[in-house]
Amino acid sequence: MKLTPRLAVCLISACLGMSSGASALDLPGAASETARQSELASAEPFPTGAYKGEDTPRIMAEGDVERVAFRVTGTSLTSHQLIAPLRSQLEAEGFQILFACADTVCGGFDFRYQLDVLPEPAMHVDLSDYQYLVAEHADGRVASLLTSHAPGAGFVQISTVTPSDAPPVELTTPSQTDLTQSLRPTATGDLVTRFEARGRVVLDDLAFDTGSATLGEGPFSSLQTLAGYLTSHPEVRIILVGHTDNTGSLESNTGLSRQRAQAVRQRLINTYGVPSGQISADGIGYLAPRVSNATPEGREQNRRVEAVIASTQ
User: Fold this and answer.
1) How far is the C-alpha of 8 from the C-alpha of 267, rounded, in Å?
2) How much is the pTM?
3) pLDDT digits (tens, 9 = 90+) for 297-311
4) From residue 153, how far is each of 42, 48, 121, 174, 185 by CA, in Å?
5) Containing domain of residue 206, as a range?
6) Are residues 68 and 183 in the same domain?
């Protein structure tokens, strides 16, 4: 749906639950909504400080979550110039800015990886040129803005959490076994669907020796599927990100996780012929666990390699 600049900002205002009397801002160029994602009675963690690993400060906002991405075509404005008028709009509506930062000051790749960003091409994030802020209203609403830039276009994501008035739902607590099973994909065949929808996917069937960066012989269905996807989408660039459990030091785990990601990269290149320029590799040790490391099952789930879409340009 194509939007005029004024309509685009009116839609943004609606996303934030703002009053109809809120003054509209003028966005440059032709703005269009590229993606929208809603989650009722959910929760969203928003960083409220620069990346510090496990010590990165966050606010956990609970309620109805909505993420909306926009592409602003025909503009040369920087990510800062894109976010500045939207920040003013938030402040005018009574939101208090909790934290704001830019790319390297935020923490670059590591900080970006903490954010729940709508996937490419709907929302493009240049890791060397993005702006982020999070704000809170006295009525409990939380809003986050993320802007970035590509040649000839700007990108904006607005994430909002509105407190839900719905009564709590009675749920039974799943066992660790149930939780472990729920984290595994039902079939590798839906890997591409999940990859495109979320912008990242865990390669769950990989096997490494304990404490080793040596990848098993396979074959691994996830790598076959991922290689096929990358071969048929040469414009897509990905980052393989290695993760570990919390056994041992952060330094040793970060090194091991990076080596495992590099091993997966080499397998995709050497065995499946994926161009090396499409894949990079890094590791962040135990800084982004899927579940608690308190049990053997949890630690097993946290030892993994993820594929993350970095660019579709």
Assistant:
1) 45
2) 0.50
3) 878 888 899 998 887
4) 32, 27, 12, 45, 35
5) 176-311
6) no
